[in-house]
Design a protein that fits this description.
With 205 residues, the chain is mostly helical. It has one domain: Hypothetical protein, domain 2 (Endonuclease III, domain 1, Orthogonal Bundle), CATH 1.10.340. The chain is built from 11 helices and 2 strands; from the N terminus they run ββααααααααααα. A two-stranded antiparallel ribbon has the order 1-2. Strand 1 and strand 2 (12-14) form a beta hairpin. Helix 2 crosses helix 10 and helix 9 crosses helix 10 (165-174). The longest helix is centred in the middle third of the chain and has 21 residues, at 99-119. It comes from Sphingomonas naasensis. One of its GO terms (molecular function) is DNA-3-methyladenine glycosylase activity. This is DNA-3-methyladenine glycosylase I.
Length: 205
């Protein structure tokens, strides 16, 4: 089975994006394109944690509900969540009501605040883990990598939860630290072009 399928415009795309209609716009406009915004990076890492054991379709369909429930993944606001907020979230049918994953987001918001105080920027810190081109496996052939293992280990050492190597690898794929679009996918070169134009964030400290 080939790695690509024709899209609505006849151009080849990663086979996975043909699974359900909502995957195509996500694939074409977000997945694999580099991100330097702390909040977007935090949101994605949280959503990948919620996806653990579930499908990305489930999370993508509920993404706007997650954003509303977690105040746009504003780490300062989420870090201040108390028991009443956990009860509210456990009663919210619009999100995944998993106590451990909800608690992990609150914990991780606090850990993010600590990291930013120490490092100056979450994005600058995350991008230090971008793998070198020679360290990359062929597209969509692995679910972890040395870079995702290293980032997962460092996050766990800092007290983060639901950040295993597979979850972190999916995060790195989505946020453009890895261009894992299939060879031949029309978006692979677009993602590569975006990465070439991308200014890797650095800490202001």
């Amino acid at each position: 089975m080939g790695a690509t399928v024709p899209g609505p415009d006849g151009q080849p795309r990663c086979r996975w994006c043909a699974g359900v209609p909502e995957f195509l716009p996500y694939h074409d406009s977000e997945w694999g394109f580099p991100v330097a915004d702390d909040r977007r990076l935090f949101e994605k890492l949280c959503l990948e944690g919620f996806q653990s054991g579930l499908s990305w379709r489930t999370i993508l369909a509920k993404r706007e509900n997650f954003r509303a429930a977690f105040h746009g993944f504003d780490a300062e606001r989420v870090a201040a969540f108390a028991d009443a907020d956990i009860a509210r979230l456990l009663g919210d049918a619009g999100i995944v009501r998993h106590r451990g994953k909800i608690a992990a987001v609150i914990n991780n918001a606090k850990r993010l605040q600590e990291l930013v105080r120490q490092e100056g920027s979450f994005a600058a810190w995350i991008w230090r883990f971008e793998p070198k081109p020679g360290d990359l496996a062929p597209p969509q052939t692995v679910s972890t990598s040395p870079a995702s293992i290293a980032l997962s280990k460092e996050l766990k050492k800092r007290g983060w939860a639901f950040v295993g190597p597979t979850t972190v690898f999916a995060f790195m794929q989505a946020m453009g630290l890895i261009n894992d679009h299939a060879e031949g996918c029309v978006m692979r070169e677009q993602a590569a072009r975006a990465r070439r134009a991308f200014k890797v964030p650095v800490s202001s400290d």
